[in-house]
Amino acid sequence: MVNGGPHGVSQNEPISNGEENICDDICAMMFGFIVFLLFFPFSILCSIEIVQEYERAVIFRVGRVLSGGAKGPGLFFLLPCVDTFKRVDLRVKSYDIPPQEILTQDSLSVCVDAVVYARVFNATKSIINVEDAHKATKLLAATSVRNVLGTKSLADILSDRESISAYLQSVLDEATDPWGIKVERVELKDVRLPYNMQRSMAAEAESAREARAKVIAAEGEMKAARALKEASDIMNESPASIQLRFLQTMNSIASEKNQTIIFPLPVDLLKKFLNRQ
Q1: 100, 192 in Cβ contact below 8 A?
Q2: Which of 8, 42, 206, 222 has its CA 20 to 30 A from that of 104?
Q3: 8 A C-beta contact, residue 140 and residue 176
Q4: Structural domain boundaries of the chain?
Q5: If you average pLDDT over residues 175-180, what whole number do you get?
C-alpha cells in the first residue's frame, strides 16, 4: 500500500460511485450497440420513437434516468434491451372533485364539489417522485377542499368563492411542486345545503324583503306627504293657483266622456254666508 501523505489516496481504495456509473453506462451502451448491429433491420424499427409537441419522453437507461432531462418533441432513438421510456402529457387536465361533506365553522353541514385544472411542468419529477401524479393531485385536492372550507363559515363560502378558490390554488400548487405538477386554477362548482336549511334561509330572505318593502313604502308616503304640504303652502300664497287647479280637474273629468259632471262650490262663496250668520 502506498500512501500519498495526509491527502493521499490508497491504491486499494474502491472505485467511487460516479466511476461505477460511468462504467455501467459504457457497458450498457456497448451491449445495446451490439444488439443493434446483430438485429439491424428489426432494431431500427424498435429503436425509433416519436413524441408529439404536447408530450415529453423520460428515458431510463439500465434503470437510471438519462441525463439531460426529458426528450421531445420530435424523434429520438433508444438502445435495444437497454433503454426504456415513459411518455408524459403536458396538456392541462381537469379533475372533477366529487361532492365533499363539510362541517363549516358555524357547525352547518354542506356538500361542496369543485374542479381543478393542472398540468405537468416537469416530466421527470412527475415520473420518479410519485407513482401517479394525476391521481395524487386529485386526492390531495379533495382533502384540501375539506380542510380549507372547514375553517370557513357558510356565509363566507357562499359570498367569497373567488378568494377561497385562489387560496386553494396556492395551497395545492405548493404541495404538488415536488411532483412536477402546476395547479392552474381551482373552482367551486356547487354548494348544496340540506333541505331544512334551504327553507330556513328562504324564510329569512323573504322576511328581509318584506321589511325592506315596508321601509320603502313608508319613505314614499313621507315624501308624498311632504310634497303635498309644500304644494298646499304654495296654493295658499296664490289664490289664483287654486282656480287653475280647479280648471285642470274639470278638464280631466270632461275628457273621460262622463254624462254627469259635479261642480264643486267654491269655499270663498260659503264664507260670506257663514259670516252673516
Answers
A1: no
A2: 206
A3: yes
A4: 17-89, 93-197
A5: 94
- DSSP letter (8 states) at residue 255: T
CB-count exposure of residue 136 (10 Å: 0-12, 13-18, 19+): middle
Q: Residue 277's pLDDT band (boundaries 50, 70, 90)?
A: low
Q: Contact at 8 Å (CB) between 158 and 201?
A: no
The CATH code for residues 93-197 is 3.30.479.30
- How long, in residues, is the chain? 277
Residue 255's pLDDT band (boundaries 50, 70, 90)? low
Does the structure show a pLDDT above 90 at 93?
yes
Task: Say how far apart CA 51 and CA 73 lie, in whole Å.
Answer: 5
Rounded-to-integer distance, Cα 25 and Cα 187, Å: 47
Contacts of residues 267-274 at CB distance under 8 Å and 24 or more positions apart, as own/partner, are: none
* Cα–Cα separations (whole angstroms), residue 124 to 64, 135, 246: 11, 17, 93
- Residues 133-174 have pLDDT tens digits of 999 999 999 999 999 998 998 888 888 889 999 999 999 999
Mind giving me the DSSP string for 61-112? ETTEEPTT--B-SEEEE--TTTEEEEEEE-S-EEEEEEEEEEE-TTS-EEEE
Contacts of 178 (CB under 8 A, 6+ apart): 125, 129
Residue 112, C-beta contacts closer than 8 angstroms, at least 6 positions apart = 99, 100, 102, 145, 149, 157, 188, 190, 191, 192
The one-letter code for the residue type at 18 is G
- Single pTM value for the model: 0.60
| Residue keyed to cell 385544472 | 117
Task: For the chain, list the strands marked E by DSSP.
Answer: 48-51, 55-61, 64-65, 74-77, 83-89, 93-103, 109-120, 181-192
